[in-house]
Amino acid sequence: MVYALQHVATEPMGGIADALIERGIEAQYVRPFAGESVPKSMSDAAGLVVMGGPMGVYEQDAYPFLSDEIRLIESALEQDKPVLGVCLGSQLLASALGATVRKGAQKEIGWRTVTLTEAATRDELWQAVASPFTAYHWHGDVFDLPRGAVSLAASAQTACQAYRYGRNVYGFLFHMEATPQIVTDMVEAFAGELREESIDARAILAGIGDHLPRLAEIGGTVFGRWADLIKRAG
């Protein structure tokens, strides 16, 4: 079983859940936004998934559960259990690893090109994945590569888009887990943010047909390989 920390209704695991189900791995959602408590330890779980959300790592006073999540991530790291952080999850993971998370110069929202690093060609999750590719982004915060981590991907705007720490801990700033429903729900839920940034919602929705099929295929490969790490450890 893995814990899956979900921060907002519109951002479930999507394709990550599919990869876990295909391998017979149960996922237990923990939804702090609905009042559910973050587990105090990883003793009952074989792995940890931390999803995205509109809050920032530096907003722990407003969202006290973020501090609890960082402690749970630290517990997973100490026990060498697989961790997968997406968007906010990758930022919380970076913070747990000692990096500072901060607001970026501008938000990165929509369909943008991601290029894999040379190290990604040797990575267990990313090897043989064609680069570059178009990914789905929705973030305003950035962070430097955590000390001891390996950079796996970058975009023109953001240097640290994906990284690995150790052998089984991964952070992805972009959303490979997205489904058509997730993209549609995010565009609707965060419409005010799009207006503030003068971003055309129609362009994002058009990208569902143009870019999501290939991105979902890449995500299926990468998430499946991460799930295999859990199977082997168990």
State the gist of this model.
With 234 residues, the protein is of the alpha/beta class.
Uncertain runs are none
Tell me the radius of gyration. 16 Å
Helix content: 25-40%
Counting structural domains, the number is: 1
Can you characterise this structure?
By secondary structure, this protein is of the alpha/beta class. The protein has a single domain (2-233), classed as Rossmann fold. Helix content is 34%, strand content 25%. The protein contains seven helices and nine strands, in the order βαββαβαβββββαααα. It has helices spanning 15-22, 65-78, 88-96, 180-189, 191-196, 201-210, 212-233; strands at residues 2-5, 27-30, 47-50, 83-86, 101-116, 133-143, 149-155, 162-165, 169-172. A nine-stranded mixed β-sheet has the order 2-1-3-4-9-8-7-5-6, with helices on both faces. β3, α2 (65-78) and β4 (83-86) form a beta-alpha-beta unit. The N and C termini lie close together (10 Å). The mean pLDDT is 97.
Can you lay out the helices and strands and say which pair or pack?
Layout: E1 2-5, H1 15-22, E2 27-30, E3 47-50, H2 65-78, E4 83-86, H3 88-96, E5 101-116, E6 133-143, E7 149-155, E8 162-165, E9 169-172, H4 180-189, H5 191-196, H6 201-210, H7 212-233
Parallel strand pairs: 1-2, 1-3, 3-4, 4-9
Antiparallel strand pairs: 5-6, 5-7, 7-8, 8-9
Keywords:
single chain, 234 residues, alpha/beta, Rossmann fold, nine-stranded mixed β-sheet, 7 helices, 25% strand, globular
